[in-house]
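Chapter review. Work through the record for Nucleoside 2-deoxyribosyltransferase before attempting the end-of-chapter questions.
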Amino acid sequence: MYIVYLSATEDNQINKPILSVIKKHKHTTINRAFSEQTENKPNHVAQTTKEIKKADGIVVECSTTNFDLGRLLTLSLLQHKPVLLLQMKGKEQDLELGESRLVTKKTYKQDNEDEIEKSLEKFVKIIEKQRLSYRFNLMLSRDINTYLMDQSQVKSISKADYIRTLILQDME
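Structure tokens for Nucleoside 2-deoxyribosyltransferase:
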């Protein structure tokens, strides 16, 4: 599984525990951590954008955020990539991403590798379950389409996500 790791800091004390857990599980990963001091940051962000498009999932350490990290998170969701948001306990922030089946939020203690590992294992299962592999075309009447658009806007999700959510609820 190909995982892109994002962080708004290049501090190894923050990034290393998470990256080591990902690599320990033998997932292919690329560290795209950056900060305001990153050399040639626009090029770094452009390359990160390409990596996000190829990724199966995105792991984000977001105890510290900046505009570019928010932009990359938004891009990840627009690309329908599952995202794991990790925040250190005590440094939690409310990130306005809307309701999405693709976003999983977890807190962790920096020195507790088992906690990070459990969060990652659950996230990998989510990636495998949510990977969209089959295309399905659907024709709707005007009334059904209007209702679907209204409901998806109320929930801040796409029409396809709204239908998938209904099907998943029915499956339970």
